[in-house]
Write a structure and sequence with these properties.
146 residues; mainly alpha; Serine Threonine Protein Phosphatase 5, Tetratricopeptide repeat
Length: 146
């Protein structure tokens, strides 16, 4: 029911439906947050639509209390902190994401890399070439000059 209200833009009704669902199942992180990037539902995301950013942050933190590995929540926290001018909090959350996603193996691989600014990787050079062509010619495949 909450997701239906959300889809219809009836955000106040969605909030009430999410609150009722959370009363029934308070340990279901998705209700506090949303369903990730495919669906933008959930109490926290609904609060964002209503521009109730403090309430959104509280919902996101509740979702993280239930499931600290729910990376989409961290991304949405960064968004909310960014649009509310809380850069320090956004940077802190970025650090938490890096702590969760990077392990000692990935750090060792990065340190052992043969590539740096003076010796860029072939993939990097291909991307630079592609972006340069897009900048000069636009996206010819999609008939866009921007």
């Amino acid at each position: 029911m909450a997701a239906s209200h959300y889809c219809l833009g009836e955000y106040e009704q969605a909030v009430e439906a999410y609150r009722r669902a959370i009363q029934i199942n308070p340990d279901f992180a998705i209700l506090h947050f949303g369903l990730g990037n495919t669906y933008d539902f959930g109490l926290g995301n609904t609060y964002v639509r209503l521009r109730l950013y403090d309430a959104a942050v509280n919902s996101y933190h509740q979702a993280l209390t239930i499931n600290p590995d729910y990376l989409d929540v961290y991304h949405n926290l960064i968004y909310v902190y960014s649009i509310t001018g809380q850069a320090d909090n956004a940077i802190t959350i970025c650090g938490q994401i890096l702590d969760r996603e990077c392990n000692s193996d990935s750090l060792e691989l990065a340190l052992e890399s043969n590539y740096d600014r003076s010796v860029p990787s072939p993939t990097y050079l291909l991307y630079i070439d592609m972006y340069s062509k897009l900048h000069i010619n636009g996206d010819l495949e999609n008939k866009s000059n921007t």
